[in-house]
Each structure stands twice: as structure tokens, then as C-alpha cells.
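Form 7-S
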Amino acid sequence: MLFNAFPFLLAFLPAALILHGLAARFRPEWRLPVLLVLSFVFYGWWDVRFVPLLAGSIGVNWLVARLFLRSGAGWLIALAIGANLVVLASFKYLNFFAGLANLVPGVALPQADLLLPLGISFFTFHHVMYLVDLRAGRAPPYGLVRYALYIAFFPQVLAGPLVRWREIMHQFDEAPYARPDAAERFGRGILLLCVGLSKKVFLGDPLGAVVNPVFQAAAAGQAVTMAEAWQAALGFTFQIYFDFSGYTDMALGIALLFGIVLPQNFDAPYRAASLQDFWRRWHMTLSRFLRDYLYIPLGGNRYGLAVQFGALFATMTLGGLWHGAGLTFVAWGAAHGIGLGVALLWRRAGLLMPALLGWALTFLFVVVTWVLFRATSFEAVAAIYRGMVGLAPQGSGFRWRTLVLAAAVAMLGPTAWVAVQRVQPSRLAAILSALLFVVLLLKIGDDANYDFIYFQF
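Output:
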């Protein structure tokens, strides 16, 4: 079930709000169990066969946490984290590693025909965050229902944001509709849902129509002109932003309808004046996860420049692999690791960078590396890059109006969260939100409805 689909918007979400509201009003002790059941229904709507996987991972990790608290045996946590990563690798990376092995002469491993469970990367990382913090003494124990809801809460189970236990657990114990600002928060949740869906429907999906044919042509071995290459690279740069940040805005808005505030995930990343600043603004919850649970344990900045450079490179390369089981994703992550390392050396040398030049170089680097992220093979990457550097016909028909509009919204306007917080509660705001929602429904019904890009991760 997709956030941008009629079954969710017109059936599941209204029904879920009614059931949750009734439980909160008449049986407060049922509120969390009801929300948990709704989350499993939402998850199982896509493919019910994966519900036992989600439920089993929750049950096993919760039991391990209880056993650790009783015994103090740290190896239990290490074993559980390893098991979580093995399950993730089995579904997501089995064919990838088999393909790598098949590059060795004489090796011919078969390809497994496994479906990728939606959200497995995200709920696996939620388990890891809690277990690591539990072993470190930072996380307290929780009952099964609360822990299960932390993992399976439906607004964020499929594509994030990555929520730390301390950001959400205390909110489960609140009475969300008894707050004095409950009505205002509910209204802002609806508005945030509409704004996020607008970014997806009015900006992200039209950009997909501009981008996809070019990358498909490159994947098919066709020549890509200079105009097409830049159109595809710039178009995908903004498409993935509006698609993923739009999903996040919807997730934050939907969670707010149920009285839960999720962490923000984007802060105008294309305004960043350095690559380090970009990763503080792009997919912020993943950046914090990689920093705290990978980069720092690998040594961070505590053991000298060489270790720090290696930690940056390893962290970003593994981050690239997390995004997808393909060498192009690995190359994308490695490129960002090298870029961050070069920026580190620049800062260590005490060199200055004018803000405007820093922004231009950062944006160009991000655009160029997004090609690695989007292309399905290095041959397709090479075709796009040949066009971008002018080793192909110049071409024509560059869709500059679409790109200029996207750039203006992404770079000049406020983030959706900031914009929604600025809106003052009024009858006019409610009417405009209702009209926007109706227009969105008409648009969804009339046009092709693309899946969210990050659902595949």
C-alpha cells in the first residue's frame, strides 16, 4: 500500500484514524495495540508473506534484549546484530555476492529468486540502533507492544526516517488528543501530508517522465546527446529529492495525525556549501546513523588523519551498498567517501573556500555522482558521462522550464516542515488544504502514479 494510492488515502488512513481515535477516547489502554495491528495490516497489504518476517524479527530481537538484561552477556547482542545483518544480506545481497564470486574463473554460483521484503533495510537498522544502545547502557527495556510499535510503526516502516528509540518511545505513553494543541497538530499533519504528496505528484513524478527515458536509452546501449545527458542528470537530482523528501513529509504528517512527532530528514540539501554540509542536510537520520554506529566505531577522528580518511571512505562505501545491491551504488558511496576525504584534507590544510564556489562545486559533484546512483550499469553511466562532457552530439529539446521550476522550489523555498509551521490556523487555511487534497486526488487518478524511489531500499 503506497502513500500516494487511493486505497491508502481514501480507505486505510481514514479507517485507521477512526479506530485509533475511538481507542484513545474510550479505551486508552488499547491505543497502542490498535496502532500496532494497523501497522501490520499496512505492512501486509503489499505482500502478506513478509508479515511473519517482520513479526519474527521483532519477537527474536525483543527476546534477546530481555535475555541480555537478565544475564548481562554481551555476546547475545553481538549475535543478534549479526543475525539481523545476515537476514538482510540473504534477501538483499545474496545475488550481488554471488555475482562477484562468479567473476572468478571457474566459479558459477546460481542466482537466487528471492523477493526483497519492503522496508527490511530500515527495520533492520532500527533493531541495530536499539541493541547497540542497550548494550552500551543507554537504552532501557521496553514491553513487547512498545518495542514492536517502534519497529513497525506504519508511517516510517517502509522508507524511514530512521528513528532512534529515544526520539519516539516516550511519545507512545502520551495522550495525543488530550493536548491543548491537539487540533492544531492534527491540522498541521494534514497540511504536511498534502505538501509532501504535492512534491511527489506535481514535481517528482513529472521529472521522472523527463529522466527515465534517457537512462533507459543509456541502459539499452543507445547514444545519449549532451542535452539529454544533462537533462537526465539534473532531472534525477531534483526528482529523487522531491520523491524522497515528499515521502518523508507525508510520513511526518501521517505520524502527526496519530500524535507522534518523527524527526525531520531533509533541510534544503541543495543549498549546501560543502559536501559535509550536504550530508548534514540530506537523509539526515541516515547520516546520523552512519556517523554514530559506523564512522565513530571505525575510529572517527580519534586516531589520526589516515584512520579518519579510511573511516570516511568505508562508511560511505558501505552506505552506498546499503542503498542497493549493485556496484554502481558502491561506486556512488565510494565517490562520496573520497569527496569527503578531499574536503577533510582541504580543511586540515587551512585552505579557504568562498561560499558561492563551495556551493557550485558541491552541487556539481552531487549531480555527477547521482548518475552512478540512478544508472543500472557502468555502461549506462559511461553513456551519460560521455554526453555530459561533450563526447556526443549536442542534441536539442532540453527541458529547461521543468528543471528551473524544480531548482527554484528545491533551493529557494522553505522546507515543507518550516512552511507548515508558519501557517496560522484559520478557516481559509483549512479550505485551501481541502481543495489541494481534492486536486491531488484528481491528479493521482488522471496520471501515471510512480512508486516511491526509496521503497526499493
